[in-house]
Amino acid sequence: MSTPTFTIFGGTGDLTFRKLLPALYNMHTAKDSADDRQIIIIGRRDYSTEEYCGKARDWVKKFSRLPYTDEDFEKFSAQISYYKMDFIDSNAYSSLNLYYKERDLNDHIFYFAVAPRFFSIIASGLTNVKNACHGKVILEKPFGEDLDSAKVLNIQLEKFFSAKNIFRIDHYLGKEMIRNIQTLRFSNPIFSNLWNSRYIESIQISASEDMGIEGRGGYYDASGALKDMVQNHLFQILSIVAMEWPEKFSADAMHDAQIRVLRALRPVADIRETLVLGQYEGYHQEQLVKPHSSTETYAALRLFVDNERWWGTPFYIRTGKKLDRREIKIAIIFRPSFLEKAAQNILIIKIQPSEGVYLQFNIKKPGDTDEIIQAKMDFCQNDYVNKLNTPEAYERLIKACINDNTSWFSQWDQIELSWNFIDKLHELYIWEKLPIFKYAAGTTGPEQANELLRGFGHEWID
Ligand code: BG6
């Protein structure tokens, strides 16, 4: 079988430049991708392949994990061809078919790096391309725009591609420390034995970004933080953190364990005690954002997993743009000690930008005193050598797709359950006419998100 051609729809978009090209460059340079691979970049703009590669070079220089060298880039870019095409024009696909035919490219991996509303348009266009239906397709999240559109999309895609060849990407599943959660939890009895509501008071999952929407208004304004981050990335983390021991550590067993968490999410009784939405000041001035848009750029949630393990332990989730920092972390806050002066033990899994584990515990203050102070153990694993050795999320996932490994991709039932939950939450918020709270850029988000926790005696860990 020949090396599959890698075709990217949305080849001039932010995702391709920032993530996909650097990932493909790293794979090529690290000899993780076949030398004879063809990379076809599809975009509407009028570039020659040479012009496109000039742009690609700048992005690879800026974002690739492995050091950029002219020599490596020349070899890599020799695989790239730019193909100008309007992918919403159904007539354009017969020419694409011809283009592949002339080059004898019959084996395909398609990457849909476009907004979800274009997925089915491209899939139906590809019916005009010989052998496309035997290929693989990688789809960016969010998969659909809500539950109903996701269902329709799934049916359409499964009509065309075989289910085993549909790879729904969630790049958080490729992040090193997200993969590490299970090892940290299950291979250390000091954590696994305490991993339940008897010992854990609350769990916080935070994904803060200091960037705004960076010219992605067209997509983002129709999406918002709940659909862009919570429904997919943060629900994946939630279900990995909260899952039961899987029967074995196989992809299917892990997946079943994650699904059981999503099924156990407690239906929302009081939306005011569950969700706070915010929008940064100045959002309306962003390109392609509607003048009075009520799209949220911040979301904070208080959720419960109703099963024996987690009865009574809240899961707090927050994410937002234009905040005071770029950071993803999971904080596990243990129940207080019976010694009044002792602080609560806190375990933090640091996912980004630094990767590592932080543990806070109590010790006696040195000297002639009984005073209790907190010791802070901070393990950091992303030093320079590790960074060079550890593939980034997109590299891992593209490689996994090439190798037919579906373990770290979102499965349809996960997507269905999480859409169902998020849609209901959003509807309730709108139904109750709750405001979208403003927050200043460079802060931790709206004050109401702090009040959400304070009302229950908790605080965000910063
Ligand atoms: C994407 C979202 O899926 O994840 C973006 O669409 C967000 O809005 C990005 O900025 C964050 O990814 P990372 O890897 O930088 O945390």
From TrEMBL:
Record carries keyword Cytoplasm: no
Binding site for substrate: 171, 175, 209, 228, 321
Residues reported to bind NADP(+): 44, 86-87, 141
UniProt keyword Nuclease present: no
Primary enzyme class: oxidoreductase
Limits of the Glucose-6-phosphate dehydrogenase C-terminal domain: 183-460
Assigned protein family: Belongs to the glucose-6-phosphate dehydrogenase family.
NCBIfam families from the UniProt entry: zwf (TIGR00871)
Descriptive protein name: Glucose-6-phosphate 1-dehydrogenase
Species the sequence originates in: Pectinatus haikarae
